[in-house]
Amino acid sequence: MTLSGELIAFMCLAIVAVIGGVLLLNLSKVVHMVIALVFTFISIAGIYILLSAEFLAVVQILIYSGAVTIIMLFGIMLTRHNDTSEAKTGKWRKLLLLAAVLGFAFAVYIGIYNLELPAAENTLHENNTEQIGIALYSKFIIPFELTSVVLLVALVGAIVLARKDDLKEEGKE
Description:
By secondary structure, the protein is mainly α. The protein has one domain (5-80, 89-139): Four Helix Bundle (Hemerythrin (Met), subunit A) (Up-down Bundle), CATH 1.20.120. The chain is built from 6 helices and no strands.
């Protein structure tokens, strides 16, 4: 098996994504967790670029690495949260977790080792943004609009709940 530049880039990006996810779960400060999440998001955007899905890579960076991360940071900084630390986990639990992760990685490796996928059309890399737009606004217009309605309802619900909490704190309710 020869190592191409694309394979090396994929392996580096995949390792950064996995390390970011592991750090996200293991760090204790919330702001550090968000930074680890940003590394994961950006490395996934790099994988999208390797797949010739530049539109998805840009959306990944703008929406997830930018907007979602900023919203999370604002949410963390604007809310009053008690920083109660949990008890440290034991070494046996960490070893069991490591064994479970390694077992899962081995199962995934066995599952895809001899996987043969049928050849795709050559039009995959041509006008992928146009293909996404046509599919989104023709075939998937109803789910697209329903998603926007669900997001709007969630936003209004969050505002109502936040307003209700403010009224309780002021003693008006």
